[in-house]
Amino acid sequence: MNRIIGKKAPDFHLKAVSGDGEDFIDVSLDTYKGHWLVLFFYPMDFTFVCPTELTSFSNDLRLFEDADARLLAVSTDSEYTHQAWIRNGLGRIGYPLGADKTLSMSAGYGVLLEDQGVALRGLFIIDPDQIIRYSVIHDNNIGRNTQEVLRVLKALQTGSLCGANWTIGSQPLKEDSNALPDAFSTDQTVRIYTLPGCSYCRQVKEFLSGNGISFEEINLENDAKGQAFMDSRGYTALPVTVIGSNEISGFRLDKIKELLL
Q1: Is the overall model pTM greater than 0.85, yes or no?
Q2: pLDDT under 70 in the chain at which residues?
């Protein structure tokens, strides 16, 4: 098998049905550019294990959205079958169901069972730069654990080393892994848009302060210009860190370090 981790995600363009079953939409890899994407394949509609997964992800949707992640589920059924299932069995969910009718997307992501024309339970976490950062594929008889997917997502977003059984909110293995070189200095203007009580905002501010980087903090709770900036960009994930002319939405210490170095 060819390596996919660390490589650009295979492109795709699909017809899909909205999670409420009301609208047919077009989705592509670029639809999710700038956000984390949890892309998962399942074998088919109107089955037994699949609805337990789809509803579990929907129940935890807010947790994924708070981490600036979008969800997309894909099977080889048509968008019309998806719609019928939502209306007659599955019920409404909070994210789209994509229709890989040509089987090309399932094949491109290495999850296609060619003799059956269905996908294995493959799941991929794709970062905002469209790089695959995590992949797991397993037998179709076993449903996935949404909390484990969320744990891996949050671990990836730390940009640090996370050991076995790392839990959300705990410290990474090496606290100094976020340190920049001793002789580091920057003449770039740095701003950070935050809200009180945002743990991701606090961690980014601690990173900047710990490395001697001066920054302007914009409190979105009471700063009208800051709110207008967020609205104009369509940003929802916090914090938003602006380094020179570059804008980083969400908890992306890895990207912040990359732009500072």
Answers
A1: no
A2: 1, 174-186
Question: Residue 134: beta bridge partners?
Answer: 125
Judgement on whether residues 81 and 196 belong to the same structural domain of the protein: no
Q: What is the pLDDT of residue 76?
A: 98
The CATH number of the domain holding residue 244 is: 3.40.30.10
Dist. CA 5–CA 135, nearest whole Å: 7
Closest Cα to residue 127, out of 237, 50, 232, 210?
237
Write out the two tokens for 176: 């100094």
> Among residues 50, 162, 198, 201, which one is catalytic?
50
Same domain, 215 and 152: no
Q: What is the pLDDT of residues 106-126, one digit of tens each?
A: 999 999 999 999 999 999 999
Is residue 251 a contact partner of residue 224, using CB atoms and an 8 Å limit?
no
Total structural domains within the chain:
2
Active site residue 50: yes
